[in-house]
Amino acid sequence: MHAHAVPPTKWNELTGMPLTLQQGGIAMQRVKHPPIRNKIDMTDPAQVRAWTKRLRIGADDLKALIEKVGNSVAAVTKEVELGRMSQQPCSGPQSEPSIPSEAAEPKLAPI
Q1: Start-to-end C-alpha separation, the chain
Q2: Displacement of CA 45 from its chain's centroid (Å)
């Protein structure tokens, strides 16, 4: 046995020089605040990418919508849906296309 034992060191500590801890007891990690779930943060590239993919619009369109209605997820989603509905042709109530009577029943050849 050794006369005096050396305490084990962590992989990121030099012998005799402990890693200094900062506020919160976690060393060298920046604080990342959780995103607000009902708001779109245009400064976060990951959120911009996720929302443009989910809403199937471009980043410029998303920015324009947020400037128009605010950064609320509900407001932006509603505006996108309203925009899509207004682009579809308005044909009144949905009905099945009319089929001419000749095409509805095939005529049989006389025997």
Answers
A1: 113
A2: 10
Surface-to-core class of residue 40, CB atoms within 10 Å of its CB (0-12 exposed, 13-18 middle, 19+ buried) = buried
Give the integer Cα–Cα distance in Å for 24 and 30: 11
Tokens matching residue 60: 């410029």
Percent of the chain with pLDDT over 90: 41
Which is it for the CA torsion 22, 24, 28, 34, positive or negative? Answer: negative
Phi-psi region of 62 (alpha: psi -120 to 50; beta: other; left: phi over 0): alpha
- CB 39 within 8 Å of CB 46: no
pTM for this model (two decimals): 0.50
* SS3 assignment, position 5: coil
